[in-house]
Amino acid sequence: MEITPEIKDQILKTARVLSIPMRVRFRGVETREVLLFEGPYGWAEWSPFPEYLDEEASIWLQASIEWGFTDFPELELKTVKVNATLPAVNNIKEALDPFGSFDVVKIKVAEKNQSLEDDLNRIREVRKLYPTTRIRLDANGGYDIETALKLAQILHKENTPLEYLEQPVKTIAEMAELRLKIKELNIKIAADESVRKVSDPLAVAQTQAADLLVLKAAPLGGITNAVAIAQEAGLPVIVSSALETSVGLSMGAYLAAKLNSGYASGLATAALLTQDVTDHSLIPINGEIPVTRIQVNKTKLDPLQATPERTKWWMQRLERCLELL
Ligand SMILES: [Mg+2]
Description:
- By secondary structure, this protein is α/β, with parallel strands linked by helices.
- The protein has helices at 5-14, 54-69, 92-96, 116-129, 145-157, 172-182, 200-206, 223-233, 246-259, 308-324; strands at 16-26, 29-39, 42-46, 79-81, 84-86, 104-108, 134-138, 162-166, 189-191, 212-216, 237-240, 288-290.
- The strands form three sheets. It has a seven-stranded parallel beta sheet. Strands 1-2-3 form a three-stranded antiparallel beta sheet, sandwiched between helices.
- Helix 5 (145-157) runs parallel beside helix 6 (172-182) and helix 7 runs parallel beside helix 8 (223-233).
- The longest helix is centred in the C-terminal third of the chain and has 17 residues, at 308-324.
- It binds magnesium ion.
- Magnesium ion (MG) binds at residues 138, 140, 166-167, 192, 214.
């Protein structure tokens, strides 16, 4: 969509920079910084991680603007299924409690400074604690082919109820190679980090590097783009997000409801934050979250206000990224 001076004004006028403590360390961070702004159709969140360069962050901004400034029609689906997420921690019960009841859990594996044995122990412990739950493993590209293959063989032998391996190895070529090797084990591979640019899903599909695609609305530039990409790639899709408040998650929930792939979405991550910006947080109930716009409770914003230094940093980043659009 065209970013008019009026749209820019409205974003700059309503922008709030927040710093939200996490329940547990995740992706190397203990507080999550986000920027929220209010468009005519509701609140939107812009929260590219701080290390992202402007070029990438501006694509996330395009997605946020689309969400805040587009009158998306109501969908038939009113709720979407979501998975619980277990960071690479040892206090499993404590980490998963905030997710309530769930059918699918995504376990982070291949964390730096942890071994394959650590991963296997965590997986086995989850099975013990939640015997009926299906399991996804997310390696964020952290394994080499040999380790991923070894893991797949062990899990197969142990009859692990595995939905898929998410980005077990780094590159599309490595995933294609691994996929051939584990095909006989009947284990699926989902591409996540390999699907960031608009051209990526087709590359993954053409090289048969994955069985499934993980799509996130923000890095793909918004709902409209993400829907087009899913259709073009022709692979089943899992919608996910990036540690957002309920405002950011609501955009993902809309995308998930629109695509309606049948796979639980990675949109329960409000449970990983200690605070939220609304009275109706998208914390899963019976493994589902509603598909809805989020009413921000403004009294919740003040205590979460980022420091003046961080606010300045984000506002300057916002202005630079607006210029790029
Ligand atoms: Mg992932």
